[in-house]
């Protein structure tokens, strides 16, 4: 069976590269992945999968950080111009992107595979030294770039879907392939979980190209210490006034935001684990002779556990409320993203480890049991939901040489990891559902 899997995967290796380069050329950021979702959904349907999309996979009430209706309409139009199915795009109206495909192979457990599909809000470098530019698949969409490898993840997901249809006779149970939007900014997993996409799942597997695995042939079998995070924007609204003639008539939103920014960083660390807080943006004011009536801060908290992150967020809300009261201004806090902490299961780690050890692509000396995430990844929200219902999960990393770090506009990965990625996912499914 192992040889048969490898033979099938090798037969689609070229197709995987084509998928990846097409997705890379047409990147779409969170809640605007209309073209990407349309193409994936169409191919899943052709392969015989039962597909769900739109309101069946996204809980609209749980969405955070959604672009304006006007922006969404522009992205929908662009998606159709770039080859998306107009009917499928309409089903995603409002930013309800992402798709789930199910392959039902009789009675048995349900195993979910999760692949993220969104891009970063980055303008890709246009230079002959950059491989995608040189080979003609550099991003053609303004301020959007696959700088984190999600184009590779989506391609691997499609490859897995195709290979599994040729091995249905070896599977007892259901394979649920989740193509998740909005991972950047940790916006997509929560609405998918709330829509029920991991209900009834017994096993879940997700992964990432690169990140902690920066050598081609390296493989990390599990990931721990996903940091929970909450991302939010705060708009302060004061009263403008002449800065020289009547400063007492104004209410200074800039000073409220500045006071909040300083005191947010003064929140005490938590004794039960790592905690973080960052004010990444502060915009305020209208002119040097006007008491600033407006200010905006963009903030994130993080915690080694969801409880620690909740502590940081609640403390942050108190600081913001106090700063607003001190300067007599109003404020509005808007959630932009949120995900939970998480830990992989040892049982799942052992399964994927044995599979990786049996594959020639992975260096036996570079197969690592586990790593700490050291950051946040929306997959942890799904994995935690599965674990709370008694299921098991792990998050793996496929090693790849990188031309630059993740989220850098020079980013590119080694495409030779795509086919082994497909093989590992497929063999994991066969191991668990055979």
TrEMBL record:
Coiled coil: none annotated. Gene3D superfamilies: Zn peptidases. The keyword Metal-binding applies. Keywords: Hydrolase, Manganese, Metal-binding. InterPro entries: Amidohydrolase, Bact_exopeptidase_dim_dom, Peptidase_M20, Peptidase_M20/M20A_hydrolases, Peptidase_M20_dimer. Residues 232-315 form the Peptidase M20 dimerisation domain. GO terms for biological process: folic acid catabolic process. This is Amidohydrolase. It comes from Denitrovibrio acetiphilus (strain DSM 12809 / NBRC 114555 / N2460). The lineage of its organism: Bacteria, Pseudomonadati, Deferribacterota, Deferribacteres, Deferribacterales.
